[in-house]
Each structure stands twice: as structure tokens, then as C-alpha cells.
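tool_call: predict_structure(chain=1)
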Amino acid sequence: MNEGNARESKVVLAYSGGLDTSVAIRWIQEQYRADVLTLTVDVGQQGELEGALERARRNGAFDTRLIDAKGTFVREFLWPAVQANALYEGVYPLSTALARPLIARTLVEVASASGAGAIAHGCTGKGNDQVRFDVAVHTLGPGLRVIAPVREWNMNRTDEIAYAKTHGIEIRVSPESPYSVDENLWGRSIEGGRLEDPALAAPEEVFDWTGHPDDWPREPEEVTVDFEGGVPVRVNGSALDPVQLVQTMNRLAGAHGVGRIDHIEDRVVGIKSRETYECPGALALLEAHRSLESLVLPRDLLQFKALVDRRFADLVYEGLWFSPLREALCAFVRSTQEVVTGSVTLRLHQGSVRAVGRRSDYSLLAHELATYGTGSRFPQELAVGFIHLYGLPNQLAHARAEAARSARNPEENEPRAARAVLPTPS
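tool_result:
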């Protein structure tokens, strides 16, 4: 046992079935002499979850739990993110970041119910997820110890594979498969291998939900999304439960190559990293929601809400979901969403998504005022007075500046045009 590691009788491990958490079972048993209960929270990751639990048992877990949290994930985390148009650095729809507080909350609940004294996760010491898990656990379960085997162990992927081989741990990775993938309903995050070099294009082999560009349809497809109170409820006229709706949008948008993201991201710990994501449904729904808001919210509210939206995204990314500020921001956002009800038509084509139509009973676009055709009721004769008053502060400021300049330089009181042609006094 490592020096300083106190014995824990039971540890709840956030278990994904991947390399890090597979080897963590044995490592925790060795270093902390604790029984390991693995907890897998289903937030829409594809793959054989039941098979992962079987591997956990074979790898030494005394108990395994699988909790289906997909509905909770969409209702409590994804829909607030849609209402807040949440994109970190204007690019990333926070797919992994949004799942972490839900997983952390479930870890604390299971630890409390099972009498565990610690929770464990497979995060590294240089990533964002360690911050998200640790802060959430310390907030919700302040009496729990947090164990991070990869961070404490300081082993790399190659070392972990060797450890697994030495200890007979069943894993599903190899040195020839260098990519690490985190997946849920809101998107896929892909890291490792040649993706670590920002100068190299992401190889096609890392993409799954968006297929190969050769397979993208040549003709565009239009999809209509209906919103009620800022929440999507129907796709192409069909009412869907929240999970089905997200899955449907992933399928429709992904088929057209929508959702590929490749950008340089600023991590919480202060380093930059090249990040590659696939988030087809998320980007499509966010585009639809923004477009509908532009129709029904007044300009000053849209401008202020954009500041709130950005701060919301930052808080989620930084692991501060369970903060008073995030709760307050969500309360403000919710107060704006009652009128965000209507439908938006999206056009999907060759990797792009854009809104091409929107309608709402709460529309602030009055045709009789905006039209350039017959029937316009806009009082154009009032524009002259408005323009005069609108520009009056600028006129006054300019006049005051000119007066001050003339006072400082009396010899330059002539009009500028005249000064340009008059000879300079000797």
C-alpha cells in the first residue's frame, strides 16, 4: 500500500469499461485494500454495457451497478443547455462536460446508500474531468474521499496495457488502437494518437456518427423541429420522448456529416489541447433554438442573454454545475423561455446545418411594419426625427471636441477645407 493511503473498506468506482477504469479495479484493491463496487451510469454511450459489467466482475469487482440515466440526462442537463445555447468557446456543445455532474451525483448517492467511504474515477491529472468529478463530489458528499488511480499512479496508456497483461486483466484495447473515446447522447469526444498533433487532419477512422464524406447525401434535407418553452418536443411533426428526440436528431444530422468539430481548446488546468468531437444532434438543435430565439426575444434581451449563455457554458465546462451562480443563471434563462415556442426548419447538407425557416405565435417580426411591399404601416415620416435624436449624442460630442481643439489652437479656427488650401502664415 502506498504511503499515506488510508485503508477504505469500500470504494465506488465510476466504471466505463475502458482501459483506465478496468485496471483501476485491481490497483485500488492493491493500494487501498478495499472492495470495489463499480458504477456504470448509462447516459447514452453505445456499446455493450452489460458486457462491460461482466468484465468488471471478472476483473475483481465485488459488486457492479448499471443505472439508466438517459432520461434524466436529457431533461435535467441537456435541455437547460439548449435553452442557454451552450457552446464552450463558441464551438463545443459540452457533451462530456454535461454528463459529469450527473455521474458524480449518482456516485455520491450510491456511495451513501452502500456505506462506501470513497469514490474513484479514471481521470488523468491534466484533464478537465478530474476537476468536474472532484468538485462535484466534494460539494455533494464532503465526507467522501476521492481516489484517482491514473492521477496517483502517473502511468501512461502503454504502462496500463502492460499492467493489465501482467495481472491478467481483461481489456479491449491494444497499443495499435491509440484513440480514447468518451460518448453519450450529446456527442462523442475522441482523443489520442495523431489527434495530439494539431497540424495533422483528423483521420476518417475516428468518426462514427457522421460517416465518410463519400456517403453524405448529395441533396439537402430539411427537418422541422418544434419547441415548447425553449425545449424541443417534435421532429417533423412527430412527438418524441426526450431520449428518442436526441437520438433522432443525431441520426438525421449525422447522416449529412453535421457535427464534426476540430478546435484548439483551453482546458481548466491551464493548458491548450486539440479536441475532436462529433455532436450532430446537439449542433442542429442549438442552431434551431438560437434561430427561434432571434424571432421571439427583443434585441436587448438577446444581447444580455448572450452574456449569460456564455457564462453558463464556462461554468459547465469548468465543473461548476452545482454552484449558486449556475443555478441563478438557469433561473434567468428559464424566465426567458416561455415565448420560445414555435417551429424551425433546418437544412442539412454536406456537413452543414442552418435554419431556413422559423415561425411562432410569439413572433416579434410584424409583417405590416417590416414589409417593403404594399400594405406597409411603418410611419416612415417619423424616421427623420428619430435619426436626429439617435445621432444627437454623437453630434454634441463632436461639436464639443471641435470647440476644445479650436480653443487650444486659435490659429486653426478656419474651416478645415480652407486650411487645406490657404498658405501657411510665415
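agent: Residues 417-426 have pLDDT under 50 and may be disordered. Proceeding to next step.
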